[in-house]
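Have a think about this chain, tokens included, and walk me through the fold.
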Amino acid sequence: MQSPPAFVVNLAAEPVRLARIEANLREAGVSTFRRFEAVNGRALSDTVLQASVDRDDFMSWYGRPPSVGEVGCTLSHLGVYEQLLATDAPFALVLEDDALVGSALAPLMAEPALCRWLTADRPRVLLLSAADRYLKRGGFEIDAEHRVLRVRNAWLAHGYVVNRAAATMLLDRQRPIRFLVDDWLAVDMVWGLEVYCVQPPCVWLDDTAVVSSLDADRQGLREGEQVLSRERQLRRLCRRLADALFYKPFFGIGKGG
């Protein structure tokens, strides 16, 4: 099987970040990738911003509007999914330019068991970074050191694999945007996206991730956060109860990487 396409999301104004991850990928054995020019949310007109987001659903779920950076980030990843579907590839590697790729990534992406699992006609995302919470038992072994395990909660989208079924689902349901691109818990709970992670992780955040205005934008909006929707509160309560009463005793729950 040919290597899956690899996409690096990178703003035009960040050539230094692009050069860093290009060197990192070369050292890690990922010989080729496609640069996807990230959407700069600050450069979008008010008309485009308004049309890109389902404001009522977003406000109901998060209790606040999205920042322009969050809109740009989500639109960027949706653009990558479009490019995946324009190819014949069954899945793609998606990286942000602040990702730090380990040497285990390239061999893992070539493992037949993982390729078969990703090629299935089920909407699946595989996080290559640390998940906040995941099931310690179940899943399947990729090689002697790595397993694929079901995620119970996770944020961040700096390194993951998305298959065609997941890309199709997310493009269909995120136009206009209802959830943040890295809110894996929401898209799992509400839409049934199958979110898994690799343990131990093989992608981390580079130091350049610290220099970001996205979190600052989010923090300012969170300070005025309103009451969350009853749907979100109920779904999260059910999730916590399921973890405490079923998943933790029968599967065990791991945290982080």
In short: The chain has one domain: 6-255. The CA atoms of residues 58 and 66 lie 8 Å apart. The chain has ten helices and twelve strands.
